[in-house]
Automatic annotation (TrEMBL):
<protein>
    <recommendedName>
        <fullName>Barstar (barnase inhibitor) domain-containing protein</fullName>
    </recommendedName>
</protein>
<dbReference type="InterPro" id="IPR035905">
    <property type="entry name" value="Barstar-like_sf"/>
</dbReference>
<feature type="domain" description="Barstar (barnase inhibitor)">
    <location>
        <begin position="39"/>
        <end position="127"/>
    </location>
</feature>
<dbReference type="InterPro" id="IPR000468">
    <property type="entry name" value="Barstar"/>
</dbReference>
<dbReference type="Pfam" id="PF01337">
    <property type="entry name" value="Barstar"/>
</dbReference>
<comment type="similarity">
    <text>Belongs to the barstar family.</text>
</comment>
């Protein structure tokens, strides 16, 4: 029997999916919560700098005190999330990172916005080695926003986005 379900539909094209319409994103999140996923929500509209991103992600994912607050440290900590060290729960079906208003941050620091998604995608693959499904749902008010492939996978729009 082939795998199926809402989580499979999200992951089959890669761990990062774009959403334009908030109600479609909310529906996906509700479905994943119903399937037992742990959801972390971050509003990227509030991030004027990389330091703002680091502070928000540190708090939401309960990163350790030694978190360096830069993108290399984010990568290290996401590897730990993938291994269930923190920011995740082994008893859940997986972990969802929801980034809303991501276009606002991308307009401020396009390079960081791309690298963050790439780090999440790379570590989602690491998570699978630990039996940990990791999904990143990215909401953008800019329907024309595009990102380079992450984790060697294109970032595509959700169905009905």
């Amino acid at each position: 029997m082939a795998p199926s379900g809402a989580d499979f539909d999200l992951l089959k094209n890669g761990p990062v999916t774009l959403y334009h319409r908030q109600e479609v994103l909310d529906e996906a999140v509700t479905t994943l919560v119903g399937l037992g996923y742990l959801v972390h929500r971050l509003d990227a509209r509030a991030w004027a700098t990389r330091a703002d991103f680091a502070a928000a992600v540190r708090e939401e994912l309960d990163f350790p005190d030694h978190f360096g607050g830069n993108l290399d440290a984010f990568n290290d900590c996401m590897r730990d999330v993938a291994a269930f060290s923190y920011g995740a729960d082994r008893e859940s079906a997986g972990t969802v990172l929801v980034l809303t208003g991501y276009d606002t941050f991308a307009a401020r620091d396009r390079r960081a916005a791309q690298i963050i998604l790439d780090i999440v995608a790379d570590n989602a693959r690491v998570g699978l080695l630990h039996g940990h499904r990791m999904v990143c749902l990215v909401q953008s008010d800019d329907r024309d926003i595009r990102f380079e492939p992450v984790g060697a996978t294109p970032v595509g729009w959700a169905d009905r986005s």
